[in-house]
Amino acid sequence: MPETEETTSSRISSEEKTALSTYIGVALIAVLGASALYFFFFSRAKNSEVTGYDPNRPVPTDAVLKVRLKTNVYHVVRENGTETAFQNAYWDKFEPGIYVDVIAGDPLFTSLDKYDPGNGRPTFSKPISPDLLVERPDNSFDMQRVEVRAKHSDAHLGHVFADPKSPSGRRYAINSCALRFIPREDMSTAGYANYRQLLDGAQAASPAPPR
Predict the structure, then answer these.
(1) Are 106 and 136 within 8 A, CB to CB?
(2) For residue 153, is pLDDT > 90?
(3) Which strand ranges, in their side-by-side order, compose the sheet holding 123-124?
(4) How far is it, in rounded angstroms, from Cα 198 to Cα 114?
(5) 43 backbone dihedrals φ, ψ, rounded to 5°
(6) What average pLDDT does this structure show over 53-61?
(7) Residue 25: C-alpha distances to residues 37, 133, 187 (Å)
(8) Cα of 41 vs its chain's centroid, Å
(9) Measured distance CA(156)–CA(47) in Å, rounded
(10) pTM value?
């Protein structure tokens, strides 16, 4: 039977629909691919933003920290808690590196100034810079102590005491969970290249002799 104008029009319409569907499919695949690439690079950028040290990065709000930090960490840095002696991450760690504020990442102490007074907590004779710390009286629990806080993030770190066994005459007893340890070999990639000179060429600190 000869094709009529109506059947030809109908066939062309069907071919156009098929082509349109193909174009839509290709466009959808392209959009999904572009979206996947965007979120891949965006997530990498966000991860770098969080883990790389930036002294100008704003301090997260308490609401954000409550979600981001583990419960015991939040309890220490925001509720002035204290870890159990000898049951924390860094009390017996003496590998070369630096210890930074767990909230803001500010470099606070080095392994070169770490020693073991037998108190079961990471203890340092001095900070990298006193300007990064705040000391204030603490009369809680009917004791007279001097609290140490991170100046930038206002994180509770621990306490400082007089100690004749310390090279500086002072003992900074700090909670492990208020700190993050950066090994010497990772300092450059973590954004602390300028602090490598504190450790390079120096002999790594070792535990103090037994009392």
Answers:
(1) no
(2) yes
(3) 114-115, 123-124, 170-174, 156-162, 145-150, 133-138
(4) 13
(5) -65, -35
(6) 91
(7) 18, 59, 47
(8) 20
(9) 25
(10) 0.72
At 16 the pLDDT is 60
Other CB atoms within 10 A of residue 52 CB: 13
In whole angstroms, how far apart are CA 208 and each of 27, 91, 112, 120, 183?
A: 67, 13, 11, 13, 20
The identity of residue 129, as a single letter, is S
Q: How many contiguous H segments (helices) and E segments (strands) does the chain have?
A: 3, 9
Question: At 52, which amino acid appears?
Answer: G
Q: How many Å separate Cα 16 from the centre of its chain?
A: 56
Residue 195: count of CB within 10 angstroms of its CB? 21
Q: What is the DSSP letter of 109?
A: E
Q: Is 97 helix (H, G, I), strand (E, B) or coil?
A: strand
Give how far Cα 143 sits from Cα of 84, 139, 140, 159, Å: 18, 5, 6, 12
Q: Residue with structure tokens 């891949």? A: 40
pLDDT attached to residue 141? 87
